[in-house]
Prior knowledge:
There is one protein chain. By secondary structure, the chain is of the alpha/beta class. The C terminus is likely disordered. A 7-stranded mixed β-sheet has the order 10-23-24-25-21-22-11, with helices on one face. The protein is elongated and about 100 Å long. Helix 2 packs across helix 11, helix 7 packs across helix 8 and helix 11 crosses helix 12. The termini are close together. 25% of the residues lie in helices and 22% in strands. The structure holds adenosine-5'-triphosphate (ATP) and magnesium ion. The site of adenosine-5'-triphosphate (ATP) has 15 residues, from helix 2 and strand 8.
Amino acid sequence: MTETVANNFIRRIIDTDLENNKNQGKVATRFPPEPNGYLHIGHAKSICLNFALAKDYNGTCNLRFDDTNPEKEDMEYIESIINTVRWLGFDWEDRLYYASDYFETMYELALKLIKSGKAYVCDLTPEEIREYRGTLTAPGKNSPYRNRSIEENLDLFSRMRAGEFADGSKSLRAKIDMASPNMNMRDPIIYRIRTATHPRTGDKWCIYPMYDYAHGLSDSLENITHSICTLEFEDHRPLYDWFLDELQMPCHSQQIEFARLNLNYTIMSKRVLLALVQKNLVSSWSDPRLPTLEGMRRRGVPPEAIRNFCDMIGVSKQNSVIDLGVLEECIRDYLNQHAKRVLAVLKPLKIVIENFPEDKTEELDAALHPQDPTFGSRKIPFTRELYIEQDDFMEEPTKGFFRLTIGKEVRLRYAYFIKCHEIIKNPATGEIIELRCTYDPETRGGKAPDGRKVKGTIHWVSAPKSLAAEVRLYDRLFTEPNPAIKKDADYAAIINPDSLITLTNCRVEPGLANAKIDDRLQFERLGYFCLDFDANEQKLVFNRTVSLRDTWGKIKIS
Ligand code: ATP
Ligand code: MG
């Protein structure tokens, strides 16, 4: 059973802690991204969970950068992450922290471990350390450097910090148990030498703490009560606890693991996302096809829809893959309520209303949301020459085709009934280039006074008054449902060739000249759209956020 955000196993742990007055009744969480890439929808699950717990228990949630890997980290990522968490709708107030702020303290605490005989400087190379580590079935071997004296360890460690040794030539290791059934407890590395410039501390350090050491200490130093992470860290918990216990940290944060979010047809690993960007398989980290939050934002996904999705999928300890259709349904649900309806034609076909005067423009009233009168309405211009969708006309209609065809009446949305009586073709190619039609002036607003009905309603724009636009349609990124399980898959080979379709001859109603990036739009019958960052005074560019219906699969949570 998937548990909801409102009621899940983490909340039950917290409830019990509060009953026992653990942590003096306080709840403090954090979201701890490593600034080595942009945030994705998986991170949103963690962000929503951590901030919701803080809010609901009257606690706090910190934003903390886990910046202990200087080679992979960058200020660009830090800035993007800060903007994105804010965009998602969360506020860490003045509690923005960096693990690198604690480097000095972490160093002091490492000295403390050495002094208590719990850490030693090891000269084995990384490869040798791996060999000595043993396997899941065979115990490891003690390092020959394991029994160095405290004095020698203190001396060597301070010289590591001073930059006397080459990268990889020495490390500081915890002295735990090389025969532990938990591989993480076999004298794990605490510090390694990395001559690298750190985005925040520059060249001040050439030794950097490892994740397991830095993470628990950062939690403890920030008085985090519940440190929530994904399931793959379950086996690291004994080490997390070991550091806090051995160092007698005043705050012993409690690590709790939950299942990460996986979505089919896309990928959530930052390493792979970076490779897609670097190989130009996508345009950037904010490519609207990516599951990055910047990509989704650009595509027009509202933060509310992402939060609703995270609520809906809930929190559990069972790994699963969620169907992309579930996310799309959350986006549709939200946009259905909040998007303004407008008219646009993606593949225009010109029609001429022969009985409508040439120089006349009629301003017709059109509701901005058919179910919600609070949206109000706008005027749309009706002229002699119009565009309709190529697909909305068939010369020889198939069974069940109720749109425009020779001799049958259809309704133009918010306008009139029209009838087509002539097809004009390009004599060279046979392509239909224009339709000659007539309208019934008595049917203004789409109703006939004599009560006669039409079966089809199609959308349209005025030819002279509409605006040219480029429209980008998106589909799932990969053709493979589960690209993540393929280790080092050739991602280029499984990119969906239809993941981006650019239509350059589109026409949109004139009011969209003033569209804003954050406007939520429904192009009637075509889907939900938003203005793209690439739009400018000269050129309108729209992204389709999502189609009106799920076109390719059943909705399910597996
Ligand atoms: P990657 O392995 O792709 O680099 P990561 O998990 O290392 O991702 P972090 O920046 O360390 O990325 O993640 C920050 C927080 O977000 C962590 O607490 C992590 O557990 C959580 N998180 C990352 N990916 C997911 C996911 N798919 N679902 C839920 N939480 C996630
Ligand atoms: Mg991580």
